[in-house]
């Protein structure tokens, strides 16, 4: 409805839903699932379980754990790469070294 303002909670929920959708689009497994049409949502039993609050909470928690693991792993990889680059720069002879001429 045009002209109807959403509450702060509605705006937060909409933002969270849209963020989850964007995160799904960034997930190659999700995209592969959508392309292959072998997604769990095609199974009626799974769809019925999603209505179960305990099941939905479990899935939500697992997704959070997955993203936390991914974030930590990415941070460790970036730190290792930065350290490796720093070591390579320190080991490289400076430009203009008379011994190299």
UniProtKB/TrEMBL annotation:
InterPro entries on file: Med31_sf (IPR038089), Mediator_Med31 (IPR008831)
Protein name: Mediator of RNA polymerase II transcription subunit 31
Lineage: Eukaryota, Metazoa, Chordata, Craniata, Vertebrata
Similarity comment text for this entry: Belongs to the Mediator complex subunit 31 family.
Record keywords: Activator, Nucleus, Transcription, Transcription regulation
Chief location of this protein within or outside the cell: nucleus
Bias (Low complexity) ranges: 78-92
Cross-referenced PANTHER family: MEDIATOR OF RNA POLYMERASE II TRANSCRIPTION SUBUNIT 31 (PTHR13186)
Assembly, per entry: Component of the Mediator complex.
Originating species: Pygocentrus nattereri (Red-bellied piranha)
Location relative to the cell: Nucleus
Domain of life: Eukaryota
The protein's role, per its UniProt record: Component of the Mediator complex, a coactivator involved in the regulated transcription of nearly all RNA polymerase II-dependent genes. Mediator functions as a bridge to convey information from gene-specific regulatory proteins to the basal RNA polymerase II transcription machinery. Mediator is recruited to promoters by direct interactions with regulatory proteins and serves as a scaffold for the assembly of a functional preinitiation complex with RNA polymerase II and the general transcription factors.
Region (Disordered): 78-101
One GO CC term on file: mediator complex
GO BP annotation list: regulation of DNA-templated transcription
GO molecular function terms listed in the Swiss-Prot or TrEMBL record: transcription coregulator activity
């Amino acid at each position: 409805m045009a002209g109807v303002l959403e509450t702060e909670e509605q705006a937060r929920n909409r933002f969270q839903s849209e963020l989850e959708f964007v995160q799904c689009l960034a997930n190659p497994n999700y995209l592969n699932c959508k392309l292959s049409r072998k997604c769990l949502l095609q199974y009626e039993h799974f769809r019925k379980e999603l209505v179960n609050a305990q099941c939905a909470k479990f899935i939500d928690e697992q997704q959070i754990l997955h993203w936390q693991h991914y974030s930590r792993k990415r941070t460790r990889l970036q730190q290792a790469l930065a350290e490796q680059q720093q070591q390579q720069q320190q080991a490289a002879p400076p430009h203009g070294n008379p011994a190299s001429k």
